[in-house]
Design brief:
7 strands; 7-stranded antiparallel sheet; alpha+beta
Length: about 140
Amino acid sequence: MPYFAGVLLLIFCCSCGEAEREIDVVKDSTRNTNKISAEDINFALDTLMKLPEVKQVERKILAATNGKNGVTFLQSQPADNNRLGFDAGYNGKDRFETRLSFEINPGTRQIWVNDTDSGLVTLDNYRSIHKRPRQF
C-alpha cells in the first residue's frame, strides 16, 4: 500500500466503557512532524469521537465484534501539510479496515471527509451529499 509509505502512524484505540485510551505511536524518521503537537492530535481525536458519523461506525464495529472492539484511528498522510489526516475504522487481526477518512486543520478547526464518490469535501458538504440517495 504505497499510500501509507512515509506516513506517521498513530493508532488510537477506543473501547466502549473504558475510561482510558490506549495510544500506540510509530514514527517515521523521514517525515518532519515538528508542526504537529500532542495538543493538536488530542483536539482532532476528541473532535472526531464526537461526530455522529464516527459514533455510527463505533456502533457497527461493536455489534460486529460482540462489544470486543471499538473504532480505531490510524493517522494518515493529509492532502495539505497544515492538516492532520485520520482514518477511522476497524483494527482487525489481519488488517485495518477504513470506514471513514478525515482531515482536520487544528488552526481553523475545519473538518474534511474523503468521500468515495465526491473526493475530499467539507464535513457539511459530506452530510448534505449523504442525505440524498446516491446517484449511480
